[in-house]
Amino acid sequence: MDFYLTQSVFSDPGDLDVGDLPREPGQLARVVRDVIIHRGEGELFGHAIPERWLAEDAESRYVTEVLRILRERSGRPLTERREPPERFVGTCRDFSLLLCSLLRATGTPARLRCGFAAYFTDGFHEDHWVTEYRLPDGSWRLVDAQIAYGPYDVSFDPLDVPRDQFVVAGQAWRECRAGRADPATFGVSWLEDIRGLWYVRANVGHDLAALNGVEVLPWDGWGPEILDDAALTDDDIALTDTVARARTEDELRRLYQDPRLTVPDEIRSYTADGGLRNVTLRRSRTTSPGGSTAATPVR
Question: Which residue ranges does the record assign to the Transglutaminase-like domain (predicted)?
Fold first, then answer.
């Protein structure tokens, strides 16, 4: 069984009937784009997103919660396009996680990637998540379900995002460490204090976790609290160097066993509204496309 065919506790769609879903990745990306509205897209769609939805949906870590909210807002099937008031209010991570879930459920190995997009703000690499799926020849392709079929003007196919347009976190770290990129251009462009090498390091940790089936929220944190470049120690930098150099799936599995990198059962969540609270993650229940399940601790 391919590891990336197995649903994680985050991507598991529960009792969703996938019989009517398309199998082609581009068509699945269209399904996802038509049921989610990004929390920043209200004006683009002419829709005033209710504040209570911004708060409720932002903390929905699991696909089962996304699907529950979608069912509550409309009786439409998942394959039918929804008007903005009927959609889940999400972030790039939610578009990516739902697509990853549907790909896995319909037989395509898939995973989330955390990194930085060069296509939203000129001269800046915005914090971003996309989906990556495995082609029959064993190579991987990036898909951005948020911008596919959406109100965005990009110069490339969002169903095959170039690697220089979406820079995975490990590559971003290597570029910054080698002096080929400015860490101050990586992060959140409209927040002066949410950028820098420390932020690239955080995304390296999120990406490693996602590659090991732990697809946490963008504002979840664990381990030492590092919120600026001055807080980075030599040990932090050396450990991140090691992660960023990893090339094989075996290396990714081995590295994730390091307790400094493993996501614990209890994490910190900085939350979308700027608050801070402790969150206990669900215990993992993984499901293969064939329907068999295996209960394991959070990986």
Answer: 89-145
Average pLDDT over residues 18-42: 97
Binning pLDDT at 50, 70 and 90, where does residue 274 land? low
Count of CA atoms in the C-beta half-sphere (13 A) of 290: 4
- Listed in sequence order, the residues at least 6 apart from 241 whose beta carbon sits closer than 8 Å to its beta carbon are 173, 177
C-alpha distances out from residue 281 to 43, 149, 224, 232, 263, Å: 33, 33, 18, 27, 9
Q: Are 199 and 233 in contact (CB under 8 A)?
A: no
Rounded to whole angstroms, the Cα distance separating 99 from 112 reads 9
The domain ranges of the chain are 3-296
Whether 103 has a pLDDT exceeding 90, the answer reads yes
The strand ranges marked E within the chain are 36-38, 88-90, 110-117, 125-134, 140-143, 166-168, 186-187, 220-221, 266-269, 277-280, 284-287, 293-296
Query: Does the pLDDT of residue 299 top 80, yes or no?
Result: no
pLDDT of residue 289: 42
CA diameter of the chain: 54
- Reported as a single tens digit per residue, the pLDDT across 135-180 is 999 999 999 999 999 889 999 999 999 999 999 999 999 999 999 9
Burial call 35-67: b when 16+ CB within 10 Å, e when fewer: bbbbbebbeebeeebeeebeeebbebbbbbbbb
Taking only Cα atoms into account, the Rg of the chain, rounded to an integer number of angstroms, comes to 18
Task: Let me know: does 37 contact 92? Beta carbons within 8 Å.
Answer: no
Distance, in Å, from the CA atom of 234 to the CA atom of 232, rounded to the nearest integer, reads 7
Count the neighbouring beta carbons within 10 Å of the beta carbon of residue 282: 13
278 to each of 12, 60, 275, how far by Cα in Å?
Answer: 23, 15, 10
